[in-house]
Amino acid sequence: MAGTGSRDRALRERAQAVIPGGMYGHQSVGLLPDDYPQFFEKGEGAHLWDVDGRRYLDFMCAYGPNLFGYAHPEIDAAFVRQLGQGDTLTGPTALMVQLAEALTGMVSHADWAIFCKNGTDATSMALTVARAHTKRRVVVRAKGAYHGAAPWCTPRPAGVIDTDRAHQIFYDYNDVGSLEAAVAQAGDDLACIFAAPFKHDAFVDQAEPDPAYARRARELCDERGALLVVDEVRAGFRLSRDCSWSRIGVQPDLSTWGKCVANGHPISVLLGSDKARAAAASVYVTGSFWYQAAPMAAALETLRLVRETDYLERMTALGERLRQGLAERAAAAGFGFRQTGPATMPLFLFDDDPDLRRGFCFSSEMLARGVYVHPWHNMFLCAAMTEADIDAALDAAEDAFAALKRQAGALPPVEKLAFLTAGAH
Amino acid sequence: MAGTGSRDRALRERAQAVIPGGMYGHQSVGLLPDDYPQFFEKGEGAHLWDVDGRRYLDFMCAYGPNLFGYAHPEIDAAFVRQLGQGDTLTGPTALMVQLAEALTGMVSHADWAIFCKNGTDATSMALTVARAHTKRRVVVRAKGAYHGAAPWCTPRPAGVIDTDRAHQIFYDYNDVGSLEAAVAQAGDDLACIFAAPFKHDAFVDQAEPDPAYARRARELCDERGALLVVDEVRAGFRLSRDCSWSRIGVQPDLSTWGKCVANGHPISVLLGSDKARAAAASVYVTGSFWYQAAPMAAALETLRLVRETDYLERMTALGERLRQGLAERAAAAGFGFRQTGPATMPLFLFDDDPDLRRGFCFSSEMLARGVYVHPWHNMFLCAAMTEADIDAALDAAEDAFAALKRQAGALPPVEKLAFLTAGAH
């Protein structure tokens, strides 16, 4: 933790005592460079402050939820107004109906909504609804794709048992042949096909969806009477104001949403078409806080901004400005630097960098210059970013590439990522 | 919906279009009397207002979360302060460490904490941690006990498949012989025993835990190297300021918390002892909003009130006042009226009432008099209630028993609860 400040170090020591391993889940910095801070103090707009007072332009956006800026005045005001009126009550408020109407009005395939808290709630419910609808068991899903952290899908299988993962068959994203083979293997037991809006796996290049693959997934579901699930939890409203596969003309039966639906307030959603309505009504799903009104008020305000502002066009333009600027600077410095995925959710990987030592060095150099980037997970732009922010990030990158160039020949191995290369030799 | 007002009726119609079945989960009024409102407008202290402006003394307390009163000034102020500072960020704040320290300082068996959103997150994680710790599969749990709504435990199995429920063996709560038989059947594959703090199943009398049963559960886990899990999600801090089995001298390895930890703000917790720490650090669990700071600020303030006020003694005294007053009034009216479970979480059932027609009639008569009670689920007192509230409820009950007496001979069957008696003849 060489570079981290003293408050962060002190908190990590205290956390070691009362949190298993010191931190858990996707916000653990266990697999990030040692100088990345674990604990934060404040968020405002596109910026974050760590507990040692250092300010960052934040390209992680809370791993997605921050779409319009941290502590957004209108969204948080809507939340706080509703909090004073009624939040977690003995039943829902009218906001639940209004929010379901708003979402089904925006997302083409959707006729109904079920609200929950975690993205994993929505994906797990999608699977249960598909099984109820088809009376079949098998889910066909892409190898390496993240659909949550329940035992059926968590990426690290400690504590997961054989039966938790039963009735799953995997395909390679964008590979029609492998999708067809998986579906054939499922035979007459196919309940659903899961797909991410684009390939956004960790540690590898991202990929846009091939329309032929998306269309074939739709056809196979129709031929087999199975349901197509598009998991928008990570990408929702950063590609489209609708389900993102609308852009390639493919409508799922179910889509799962979370993260940015209420700009950081906790709510996730399963949306479905009429075909799956009876099955959705038959499953028993619930949670202590699923009927909470204040996050629904925040979601209604967030969706209003999604519909009524040019946030998506601005964010996309900023992402393209970033991409082009980085490409120029990487090339000038002589690095093979791959930027993949949509402009609003980029991933950076260096060529010839199997254990990410270049990525780690570059990320640390960016961090030292006040720009928080991620060396192996897709990043997120937000609508609170400005051209000046992007230009500041590009200035930082120019210096970071130069610093990397000075160190590139002598970078130490990244021991915490040794698993990436362990099978390679 | 004879008794419901016009705004409620209109919202139900709109909900039918955009929410499967019109509503889902435990806050659906589908299995409540027809005059119960589905939608609420406001909560304040111990009272609720429905969307038609009717005010109720609320004995459901949001099904648990409302411990200190709706819209509690200090708790919500702590939340809002933190919201302005930073809530869902790219990493946690210092509050996560503080909250883990506060909980492990209060709950005797606990050495560490993992925070999540749903009660089901905590119970499912407990199972995963137990399986990781033991490298075994079987969970032994009480028949009819509610531990959440994931496929492994949801009470209504639509969409649930065979493998979701594999490796589970059931016992009868408080029955040492049946517990021993279940453990014997698990053989060398026992991962954990789950227990509720007391028997709080729906539709049947509640029961306090028999200390002999609790001690035997502990012994069996120790003999077999399995983990004991006490599921405090529903009962936490309404029986004790510690894990509730501390009162009978039994410490679990894991305990699950939710509902009232932040007085309605969304947070749940898995607490564990050192024995399970390595296993807990090995599992991959996470959620988009699990690191949210504002609910942690609310939780810290809630726990301060738990520690520093006499809320528990006051709430218990109010519950006893209610119980005694109802017993007197029921007896005077000539009804066999069973009040079971702890005074702070009562359940009412009438004798000779297999399809709950008396319970439905009594509940409706209470509702008409401004008191929201539940005919088949345990209720919850909160610390915002006063002796005057309880006395008002008792006055309502005197009238409600009289009204029930007038109607008792001619009550219609409760068709929506026909399943309760379908197997009885």
TrEMBL record, chains A, B:
Keywords: Pyridoxal phosphate. The lineage of its organism: Bacteria, Pseudomonadati, Pseudomonadota, Alphaproteobacteria, Caulobacterales. Gene3D superfamilies: Aspartate Aminotransferase, domain 1 (3.90.1150.10), Type I PLP-dependent aspartate aminotransferase-like (Major domain) (3.40.640.10). PANTHER family: GLUTAMATE-1-SEMIALDEHYDE 2,1-AMINOMUTASE (PTHR43713), GLUTAMATE-1-SEMIALDEHYDE 2,1-AMINOMUTASE 1, CHLOROPLASTIC-RELATED (PTHR43713:SF3). Its cofactor is pyridoxal 5'-phosphate. GO terms for molecular function: pyridoxal phosphate binding; transaminase activity. It holds the Pfam family Aminotran_3. This is Glutamate-1-semialdehyde 2,1-aminomutase. Belongs to the class-III pyridoxal-phosphate-dependent aminotransferase family. InterPro entries: Aminotrans_3, Aminotrans_3_PPA_site, PyrdxlP-dep_Trfase, PyrdxlP-dep_Trfase_major, PyrdxlP-dep_Trfase_small. The gene is hemL.
